Amino acid sequence: MGLLKGKIALVTGASRGIGKAIAIKFAQEGADIAFTARSESEHFLDTVAQVTALGVRCKGYTSDASDFKQTHELVEQLMADFGRIDILVNNAGVTRDGLLMRMSEEQWDEILSVNLKSAFNFTHAVVPVMARQRGGSIINMTSIVGISGNAGQCNYAASKAGMIGLAKSIAKEMGSRGIRVNCIAPGFVETEMTDALPEEVRQGWIKMIALRRSATPEDIANVALFLGSDLSGYVTGQTIVVDGGM
Q1: Please, which of 132, 159, 173, 197 could form a disulfide with 201 given CB 3.0 to 4.6 Å?
Q2: Phi and psi dihedrals of 121, rounded to 5?
Q3: Of the residues 26, 61, 122, 156, which is catalytic?
Q4: What's the Rg (C-alpha) of the chain?
């Protein structure tokens, strides 16, 4: 169908999970793909191989998404390599769960830095590019816990709620330049992160879902495709919950 033909997409944290699924989905629709990861791992190389096999350009970059200077240098290199940026997906994220009373300052700071500050860093670096182009789509990968909260995840929930506030604010600031900014709030998704959960915990989550199944990374990627494409040309400042009716 080629909904993204001729577009350049930057997906952070795309060596596995949701980020990888989004990179592949965008490539299937004709976009050239730039992505980031912390290291050039086997997963990193597999993303390059799978995307390239779809007949589009693909380049992976290793960086610390929470580092402001590194992020801006990466975007400068990306512009030298690709010439433009049409879509940014702020997907990089980690969890360090724990109850508030037992949470260390390091656990709090790491999550806010990796999840929220990285979204600020990349948005800050990419917005001037999109403003010159008079258009672009930014997608923040948040979470239902950023809306509802969750015991044992106050740091993660705060970082994801912050990404929603960031998106809504930048949408208002940059709408006149044709830049749209939205969020996706997934529910329970089958990834390596959730694979580590005990089976009884997984089944407990699934029982709360109206569709009685967890999401696949592809379910989330389909919504990202909508937000990245011209199909959502009049959608900005929104958070789309993709939780199967949870």
Answers
A1: 197
A2: -60, -50
A3: 156
A4: 17
